[in-house]
Amino acid sequence: MKVFISADMEGVGTVVHRDDVNVDDPGGHHFALAREQFTAEVNAAVGAAFAAGATEVVVNDSHGNMRTLLPTGLDPRARLVRGPVKPGLMMAGLGEGFSAALLIGYHSRAGRAGVLSHTLSGAALFEVSLDGEPIGEIGLSVLAAAEAGVPVVFVSGDEHACLEASALLPEVRTFSTKAALDRITASCLSPQECVEGIDRGVAEALTGELATPVTVDGGHTLSATFLSATAATLASWIPGVRLTDARTVEFDCESITAGIDLLVVMLFAAHGAADA
User: Which residues of the chain carry a pLDDT beneath 70?
Assistant: First the structure.
């Protein structure tokens, strides 16, 4: 059994504030502590996967610059996908032959309640929609996994992330690491409780018959509403991308994964531009 883990950071048990996840301040005290807990929660998932019979576990670092997990602290049995330029972004490394996918440390989508809620980039995007319906990183990851024929069987994050996952996948196992009191405040379980809960939840998710991947059809329309009109203008210069209002673009894509990749190109352009 091959198991894939996509690891984000905002849903980690001790994380509540931008300082906790700020990859631009790698020497920051709060970030350093959060990286340790991030790695510990991922290790809990890795260990539980191997204990459940996994023969291979691939971990994709999916937060920020995607160099956030501590490589020297990660369970040495896991293979780590590290760095920001990779097809599929948060689901990079997933393909045929995997039995299950786990989403660790995920968060709710932009515009929803939840700790540090956003979609792909809180600094650049107001909202992302698929075929006219708002979608977040959980939904995009679930659908990208489905295109590879792999079910998402476990999600950890705050209670809003868990509810978002359960709405998409009624049979998915979830573990809530904290209860949001505000976007930057939460009532948090202890670090050890989070590790133990993820270990237990992943073990249950991988025991017995695994769920069938959700059905996903080809051909979709993705739209992205930027915080900056300049970013939207730049994005509209990409062939096939249409400007629908001052800050929103849309485009057609044959697959969710291809759509995610085009969004990444737009985000790289957006982060390099600032309104006058």
Answer: 273-276
The answer to whether the beta carbons of residues 81 and 54 sit under 8 Å apart is no
> How far apart, in whole angstroms, are the C-alpha atoms of residue 99 and residue 154?
13
d(CA 120, CA 158): 17
* pTM score, whole prediction: 0.96
The CA-based dihedral angle spanning residues 84, 90, 92, 97, taken in that order and rounded to the nearest 10 degrees = 160
Are 169 and 106 a contacting pair, CB within 8 Å?
no
Give 194-227 pLDDT, tens digit per residue.
Answer: 999 999 999 999 998 888 888 888 899 999 999 9
Beta bridge partners of 127: 225
Q: What's the DSSP call for residue 233?
A: H
Assess contact for 78 and 57: CB atoms under 8 A. yes
Torsion sign across C-alpha atoms 162, 75, 261, 97: negative
Q: What is the CA radius of gyration of the chain?
A: 18
User: Which residues are CB-neighbours of 14 under 8 A, at least 6 positions away?
Assistant: 20, 33, 34, 37, 188, 191, 194
For residue 1 the two structure tokens come to 């059994």
Task: Give me the active site residues, please.
Answer: 118
Q: Output the DSSP codes for 27-60.
A: T-HHHHHHHHHHHHHHHHHHHHHHHTT-SEEEEE
